[in-house]
Every structure is written in C-alpha cells, then in structure tokens.
Amino acid sequence: MNSPVYTFVTRDENSTVYAEVSKILLSTGQWKRLKRDNPRFNLMLGERNRLPFGRLGHEPGLVQLVNYYRGADKLCRKASLVKLIKTSPELSDSSNWFPESYIIYPTNLNTPVAPATNGISHLKNNPKTDEREVFLASYHTKKESGEGTVWIAKSSAGAKGAGILISHDANQLLEYIDNQGQVHVIQKYLEKPLLLQPGHRKFDIRSWVLVDHHYNIYLYREGVLRTSSEPYNSSDLQDMTSHLTNHCIQKEHSQNYGRYEEGNEMFFDEFRVYMLNTHNVTLETTILPQIKQIIKSCLSCIEPAISTKHLSYQSFQLFGFDFMVDESFKVWLIEINGAPACAQKLYPELCQGIVDVAISSTFTLNNGGDSSSASSSPYSSSPSSTFITNSNNCSSPKLRGPLHVGPFTRLSSSSSSSSSPCSSPRSSPCSSPKISPWTSCGGPPLVPEGEDWTCEVVQDRNKVFLKKPPPGSPPQRTAAPSQPSTSCPPARPQMCRSSQLISTGPPPKWVKKLKAIIKERNQQRGNRGQKRAAGKVDGVPPGKRPRS
Questions:
Q1: How many helices (H) and strands (E) does the chain have?
Q2: This protein's superkingdom (predicted)?
Q3: CA 19/CA 354 separation, integer angstroms
C-alpha cells in the first residue's frame, strides 16, 4: 500500500457526514489521521462553532484546508439571514422567494427599536435593531386588507423545531419572544402550501449545496422532502405535527410517523412521478430552476465577505437549503443550515462527492502516490498551479470547476447566458469594486475598445502590479490589443508573472528609481553568494570568524 501523502485532523466527533468523509480518506491510503491538536495538518474537519481560523495557514510548507467558511453564519443564523437579505442590493428581488420577516430582540436587552416608517435604513446603520414597530405596522396593514394574519416566531439559533410559536396574535408573538430572552425572527406564515396526497400533508424540501475552495457552487443531484404525518389544518395552530415537518417533532409527537413514507422522507425520484401524475408539472422545469436561482443569489451575495481565495488557507463548506412550495408552485426559502445532516441512504454518495469536489481538487491525489505529479483535477489549486486566462473572456481569477463531478452539478453564473461577458455591469464578474488603488493582474490587461485605462507598472521580481491613476489626472489612451476583445480590466487581485503582461509605455521616474534599488539589492545578494562560494563572508575566512 502507498504511504500516506497528506494528513488530516477531526475535531467534530458528532458529525456523521464528516465521519464518513474520514473513512473515505483513510481508505485511499494517501491520507493519515493525526491527533486533533496536531497543528501540522493539510485538512481540518472541524466543529462549526469552534474553529481556530486565526491559526490556520501559518505552517510553513503546508497547504491547509478547513471544512467551513469563516463568516458563513451570515446565511446560517436566521436573524443574520434576514438582515443580509434586507440590506443587500443584490437581493432586491427577495420578496419573490423569501417570506416577509422581522428581527425581534427581547425588551430586556434594551436593543434600539427601528421606527415603523424607516426600518430598513435603521437596520443598515445599526448592528442590532429591533424591528417590532415595523412588524406591528405590517401586521395591522395586512389584517385590515385581509391578506392573512398568521405569523411564525423562530429562535435565531434554534434547531430541531425548538423555540417556535405560530399565532394570529401579534402581541402574543412579541410576549413569547420577550420571555425567551434571545433574538427571534417573526416571519409571515405560508398559509397556502402545496400539500401531499394522500393525507393532505405539508412538506419542505432539503437541498444540499457544496461550495469548494474556488467558491464554485455545486448542487447535489438528490433532494429529500421531509413530510408531515398529520393533515394540514390552518385553523388549528397548536398542533405542531400538522405545521412543522422537522424529524424530531414528527417522530416524538405523531402516532402516524412513517405511515405514508419511510422515515417521513420522499426522495426526488418519487416526487418527480408524483408531480407529473398529480399536477402535470415536471420537477426540472417548475421547481428546480427556482431552487437553483435562490441558491446562487444567496451564496454569491456573501462571496466577497467570506471567500478564502487570497488568504493563507482554503475553505469549503456543505450547506443545507430548506424550501417550501406554495399551491401555485412558487418556491420559498425558509432557512439555511451550515452543518446539515443527511438521509442515511445518501451518505456514501454525498460524502464521496465531497471528497471529489472539495478535497481532491485542492490536493493532488493519484494512484501512484507521487505527490509531485500533476493533479488530474482540471481545477487543482496545488502550490505549483497557475491561473490560466482566456483573452475572449473576462480576466476574472475565479477558476470554474467541471460542470459535473459525481453526484454534484456546478451552478453556472448568472452572467454566463449573456452574449457578451462584460455587457452587463451588474452581472459581470469583472464589475466587482477595487478594494484598493493597487490591483494586481490576472493576465494581460486587455482594454475594451474605445475605453481609456491608464496603468503604471511596478515590477518586483516576479510580481507585477497595476496602479490606477490618481483622480483628476489626464487619461492616456492605452494601446488597444492586437485582437479585438470584450474583456474587462482585471477586477480582483491575483498574483501573476511578468511574462503575462504587455507594455504600457515608459514608467515614471519613481518607478525607474524603485527598479534601480531592486536591481542593486539583487546584485548585492549575488555578490554575497559568490563570496560564500569562495569561503569568505565580508572578507573574513570561515575559520577566522568569531563565535556567536
């Protein structure tokens, strides 16, 4: 058997998903499991809320990968998700797929209360904002117009159906939250859900999504419906088994658990047949396109905040997106789980997919055990790998993974359908804002025809940076590329070699001076190397040097 090439540690003994991933890694013969406190690892399968992100990526000579993204709780905690959706311009269409929601803090926490007339502005400017006044205004408006008065209160950090109240009474909901002592979300209840027959029962849909270290988004091909055991009754809000599909609630409180589906789970193959026979609609054309668009919108929104693309370590993460479908086949996002469990029969395939997509793409795995050979993955990020850009596309450093890897399918970017990759500033990957006046290059700085782009080149060994001109300086027309191109100037920082660049004209005096200094220092280093070869350093033979 080949000797192990890479090492990993496991710090979450309760995760069944990563327990299976560990078994798969060990079975390859190329991974060795270390003690949980050993810092010299390649891969950490850690516990979601106790990861030492600040200590990752500091081991010389090691590429380190961790199974969570730092900051992903922006999506995975209910209150944070509500705030993100309300304050992100990229999610301005969220009213079409996310129920009306409000963040409520208990009164004893003395949290600032947003005014009913300008709640969103207050939410943007304050880290913590109680939206009870905004909620009450909306509640009374809907009550007067007859749009429905059923709302659901959910604990922001709650799980397994805990900390939930469904009610017609706004004051009852607020009093319940005040007595709980922690932040909650009040959400408009979906009063007309699509129901399963037989039994007239509610269901929700769990979809598994994997984000790799390049922030490629992959959707697992299988999904599962978590079904209720009891008939849906909109007039009886006290029967939680009728309204909540959580496994814990159904298994503990319903005598009909498992009566209709084994384990109250229906998989996509059966659901496809059901939708076609019962409603004459297909899953692929009616439900899945909505699911995919919601997933892409949410994950793309937080990419700039959590991506590890330019950090000293890499991340990947498995997410669980929970959806509901109303009677008009409209899909609604309910919540996002950052450490989702999985149906028992899906473990082998799902976990093998995690290894193939998220781990084998980062580390070179091969049958011969030669760690120096090139990775068979088309998007390897080993230390020797380089970015390859295409002059016919935007010079974005993001590497696209393969469209299909085992049971996972990559969700293409929203701009891929456009005829020109840079035609839409909102959807183009090249339109991301510069994070500083210095922007390193991901390839030749090709300039769209008819546009001005003034660059100054500063070269330090194999690093080349492009500097934007100061505001108000007269623009200079850069020579157009030899072949017409619709490519954008580089939009995200990336290391590149000087051979990738084209000339941008004579540099200013300070650039020449900087180059002269660098050249002089390199010559000094070369002279010291020659002296060492001759057995002298600073003119002193080795045997005559004083002991330090």
A1: 13, 19
A2: Eukaryota
A3: 12
